[in-house]
Structures are given as C-alpha cells and as structure tokens.
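Let us practice reading a record.
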Amino acid sequence: MNLNLFRTYMRVVETQNLSRTAEEFGLSQPAITKQIQALEDMYGVLLLERSGRKLKTTEAGEILYNYSRDLIRSMDKLDKAMEDIAEDRKGSLFMGASTIPGQYIIPALIKGFKQEHPHISISMEIADTEKIFNKICERELDIGIVGGWTNQRKVDGFPWLEDELVAVVPQNHRLADQTSCSLADLKDESWIFREKGSGTRKAVEELMIANNFNRDNLNVFMEAGSTESVLAMVEAGMGISIVSRWVIRPDKPQTKLHYLKLNEKEARRIFYVIYPRQKVRRKSVNYFIDYIKNNHSNS
C-alpha cells in the first residue's frame, strides 16, 4: 500500500485545489492528478468532482478522506514507536559539512557526541556549501553544517557559529611583518580563490561587494577545490587568499604562511546548521541538534 497516495488525497481535499497541493508537495499538477486517478481506479469510484473552481468530495470521497486520516495517524504512530525502539538500540546519522566545519570544527564535536551516544553510527560527507544544501533539500542527508545560507523552502536551520575571514600570504611576503591589512592593500596581488559553490568564496565575494572592491579587476591566478589546496598554493608563492580563521592551528605552526586580520568590519560570516524541513525527525537527529546547540552556539 502506497501511503503517499492517501497523504496526497487528503491534502487535495483540504486545499480543494490541485495546483496548490502540487506546489506544497513540490510536484507537478499532472503528477497529483495521476495519484488521485490511481485511488479512483483502486476503488472503482469517483472521489472528487468540481464545484466552480473548487474540488468537492463525493460521498465515496468523504468516506475515503475520513479513513485516510485515521490510517495516516495510525501509521505515523506506528512508525514513531518502531523508530523509538530501533533508535534506542542502534541509531544512525548521515551528516554533511562544507570544507571548513567538516575539516576543522566538526571532528571534535563528533567525538564528544559519540561519548554521550555511543550507539549512534555517524557518516559524514564533506563538500562545498552548495552541494550540501542540495543534498539536504533532497533528504539525502539528515544534518548539514555550512558556511552560508540559501533561502530554500525545503530546508530549515539556524545560525550556529561566527567565523572570521583572514588574509593569508607567504612568509616572505611584503606584508608578512604586519598583523593586519585592508582589502586595498591586496588589490595588486595574485589571488587564489575557492571554487564556485564554496561558502568561503561566497563570503569573500560578499565582503568585496560590501566594500566596493571589484573582483573583476583582480589578478585571479587560480581557483582551488579545497582550503588545503589554497594554503598549499599560497605557501608555494603562487598568490594570496582570504580564508577562515579556523585554518590557523596554533598547535601546528605553519612557518611558511602568515595570517593577517582584515580591517573591514564585514570580514565575518556565520556557519549554519541545516536539515530537511519536516514535522518529525529521528531521535538520533534531534539528539545531535540539541548537542550542537549547546556547543559553540552563537544563540
């Protein structure tokens, strides 16, 4: 039995409108119509009929709506009961993170979380912010931690942790004896940028726009697919870049790199925790959301 047919039917009855239901479900109107027709074929009766611009239930349609509502409620309760039992024994968590949080911040959090919830197995994918957002939209991941926000009706989330952008130059650079600089000090340099889709790149471009700093006039030497690649290129003397302060590791001095604080007040961004927009989540997901809210949160 395909419960989605009954969920769709219930919503059509409640909205009295196919196109509105299609929009809410992220489907085409013909796809919604096909699902209603499938139910009518299944029971051999007409379920809906038009009354002006609205759809009204037939006698059979009203009966099906009432039973569908009871069915969905019962199945939701059953699913939750079974899930609670399963999660208490062994839960799972599918995470995604953009480069900076995935490589520099989240590992320590996962270690602490696993100490509190050793029964939950965790897998983590690291990709750029855009890819993680897309996977959250498609519900391929339970939770994502990214370096930028995109308005997307299928995604919920909250601001989590503030980040600071800093300039990085080779150790023998003309600015290596300074502790801070402005964007204007870097305008004639060769630049190394992250790839399109990166949260760091988006934050840097927004910083430049806010300060009327034209990226198109820069000498962009290369674009790199990871922060580690950017740092390696800067270390090799290929150019300069702007990166997250989280890449600075006091416990592992990088003698061939020098970091400078940016004077621009906009050299800040927020990391966000994101997850699919849904009414019910697995306990393991809620456990991690609660845990991360109490660790490094800005709220």
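A brief commentary: The CA atoms of residues 190 and 239 lie 5 Å apart.
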